[in-house]
Design goal:
single chain, mainly alpha, 5 helices
Length: 132
Amino acid sequence: MPITQKGLDTAADQVKQRLLKQIRAIALQGFSEILQGSPVDTGRFRSNWQAGLGSRPTGEEPTTKFEKGQPATISEVQAVQAELSGLGETDSSIYFTNNLPYAERLENGHSSQNQGFVARAVRNMEKRFSTL
């Protein structure tokens, strides 16, 4: 059976789609790790995480959407999944952002709950990406 350009293009597209699916899964898992690791007092910090493709999200999430101690709602996770679905189509940069003014302090240990939770999630994502 001869190899054709169409056959090569189809195979390349299939490989690309499989890789993008794996990349989306790793990114979603990393985002979940960040959410789970986020220190919780009132829940505002955990609820303010945002995902963006191609550009960093700006602003803060409404303060009415969080409940103390509750993880992200299903709709929040679905919003991140929807955002990640565009990965590879136009943009390839993924941004996970928390724009609250004390976000960096929490990452650096201001809360005794879980210092370095973002750095840990990033290291885990890097390990998973290296296996692709």
